[in-house]
Structure formats: structure tokens, C-alpha cells
Design goal:
It contains eleven helices and twelve strands. The chain is an alpha+beta fold and 458 residues long. The strands form four sheets. The protein has a four-stranded antiparallel β-sheet with strand order 1-4-7-6, with no helix packed on it. The chain has a four-stranded antiparallel β-sheet with strand order 9-10-11-12, with helices on one face. It is globular and about 60 Å long.
Amino acid sequence: MRNPCPLLVVLFGAIELTGAEAGPSTLVQTDAVTSQLLEWLNENGAYINEKLVVRHVVSDDPSSPRGVFATQSMEEGETVCRIPWNLIVKPRDWQWKDKGEVLDCGTIEEIKEMMSNRMTPYGEYLLAQPKGYTPGFWSEAAMGLLNDMLDTDKDVHETEYDGLPPHDIEDVLGDIAEECDGDIDDELYRHAAQMVKARGDYAFLVPFYDMMNHHNGKFNVKHRYNPYDFESSDLVERFGYDIITTKALNAGEELINSYNRCSSACTQYYDWFGTPEMLLHYGFVESLPQRWLFDFARIKFDLDWKDSDEATNEVVVKFLVPPSEKGIKLLQQELTRLESFALVRETMNYEDEGISAGEWESLWLYYDALHDALSYAVKSNASVTDDVWTWSDDWWVKDGTLVSANTYEHTVYPTKRSCDSNASQSQLCSNSSLQDHAVLSSQAPEEEMRRFTDDASH
């Protein structure tokens, strides 16, 4: 049966993660593996600001995730940490000129070797992390139940991307096996692959940087040098991952990263990588603000607290593309189906089906978030227009300036065009028309508001 639990933003499998590095004199409440890692980093050239401390997010709850907190006030632009290039795990044959072509296969092999030989404290640390907490690494039974919830096998779908997101869950391991020629039946290799997929920054795995928690409404750190900018590559090799604060912080504040809206290195994620992709890639359901993109309905919107203030207790729907009547009806159909799924499945004995407690709880956390997102969109009072169905395949690109819709960098593949040959329609189908997308805001109904919590851990 489904155990009652709060809508809490957690990692799959209730992962115990730390939040940052600091000088040995400032570390508190860290386990032995984490302490050894932090000491090793400091001893091998990493700079960790002495104003930082590692502690549980809920200070009196030892079961809560750990985070990085300031023990003293910090200035805007102050260095948080600097992880040298030689401590960053990357493919052995990494070349900056190949940065757009190199996969993370080599990083997976490096991490597997580090864990197998226990050659560094970072390998020990990664080996100690829980296994199978992102959906692509779930058990077959749990993955099947999630796909059933998302209705990915619906016969009337033209493509697999017509179901509810996230997409391609069952392809994660298969893609690794095909692209990397990896042995996904090897437990250690699978764990290494999950660590790279869930904690990696593209082809890099960066100790300490991968420990900071995520929150798009509260992130306060950024790269000093973009590690994926050719012009910055020599600076990254000289200084490594140099992380700074983006604003002044008070003592007691947590240092928060953004995994998809960081101001430098992840700009290609900004337009499409939302809450479903967070689930797929990182294994947690993020708190507000959230982004949702439903390709089959051509609807894209953000959810946030009114005035970005949780104290208002009001959630606002901000449509990034003008919604259509057809799209809203499609979302209503999915909402109805989703509720039917819950009526049948939430009382099942998941253990008898071979589903772990962590998988089960995480699935229903995502159900709650998905249900809320559909409900707020359907019940919003935004004006509707059918224009979106006459736009090009790049309908979902917010400002019409990105071209990544034509690459495999995006999870959401564009739907078919509905343009005809007359002049007005051709104009609507051009990329330039996307620059005129309206941003519509509508307040969602107040009934049955669910509780969104503040913190997400990586």
C-alpha cells in the first residue's frame, strides 16, 4: 500500500549527501568517508572557503540531507571553492577541441576504476552513495509502473514523446550500453554510470561541486569561468572549477546551486530542461519554481509561488507559450487518466511486485507534482488561442533564438508542423514568429493546494 508521506523534495532512495567542502577545522556532522574526502581535497590543492560548514539541512534531524552553510557573512563574488583541474574526473582522452563530441563514457570508466581500486577518497565517497535512485536505474517493476503512470504505451500516440514526461526512461541503460559499449550487467559499472549521469557536469565529475543542493528559486552560486566556453578553457585548466557567490550571504544561509538555470555553464538547458527532466537525470522532484513542457499538448509553463514568496500560499501559473483550447483539453484528459491510475495502484502491495520502498515513495512524490502541475494548468483562467498549432516545430523555444531543437541535446523532440502553404501561415511557421510568444500569467484556484517544500539535494 501507499504510505502517507508529505510532498517532500527528496532524492530517490533517501540519499544521504553532503553539501560542500570546508577546511578541516570547520567540518561538523560529517561521516568518516565525507571527512576523508574533504581533507584529501584540501591536501591536494583545492581551496575551500573557511566560512563554510557541512551540516544537516534540518539541524536537529540527522536523517535529513546535508548541505553547505555559511558560518559567517559572505560578500557577493566571494570564492566558495576552487577545485583544481587535476582533481576533476574526466575522460582520459579529453581535448577541449572535442568538447561537443566527447561522451561521458570515459568518465564512467574512470569512476569505475576509482571505486574498484579505492584509489582516492572521492572513489570511496561515490562508492558509498545509494544505488538505483534515478528512474533509468530502477528495478524493472518500478520502471514499468512509472511508464504505466506516464502512459507511454498509449496506442494513439504518434511518437513516444506524446506521453507525459519524462521520456525515454527505459532507454537510459540501453543508450549507455550502445554508446559506451559498457557492461550494464556489471553492478559496479552500473553504479559508476549512475554517479556520472546523476552527479556529472556534462563529461566532468567534480568533487564538492557535485555536493551542493539545488533550488531554482534560491541559488546563490555560479562559475567564475564557464568550463564549456572555448574562451575560458585555459582559465579552467589553470584555476579549475572556481565557484563564487552571486549575492551577499548571511551567516546560516545555505549555498545553493541550480542544475538547469545556472547563469553560465548550463544555458542550453534553460529553455527546455524542467521538473520531469530533473527527475530523470538527477532523481528528485524539485520544489517550486518548476517548469513543465507537454509536447503532445503544445503547452509550456512555469509554476511558482505568487511574487516568488511561499508565504503567500498561492501558486501562479505562468504560460511561456499561449495555451490553446485543444491543449488544455488534452491535459484534462491526462489528468483524469492519472487520477484513475492512482485509484487502482496506490493501494497495491509494492513489495510483492518487486518494488523497493524508495522507488515507491519517489514515484508517488512525482505523481503529486505532476498531478498538481496538470491541475493548475487546467484550472487556470488564462486566455486561449490556437496559434501555437500553426507555429514551427520550435514552438516550445521561448524566445526563438535557440537552434538546439534540431539536435539530440533536447529530451523533447518537436511535434509535426501543422503549417500550410499560404503566406500568413508560412510567416507563423518561421522561427522569427517565435520571438512574439506571449508570457501569460494566471492565478490558479486556491482549493486543494498542495504543500511544496524548499530544499532539493543532489
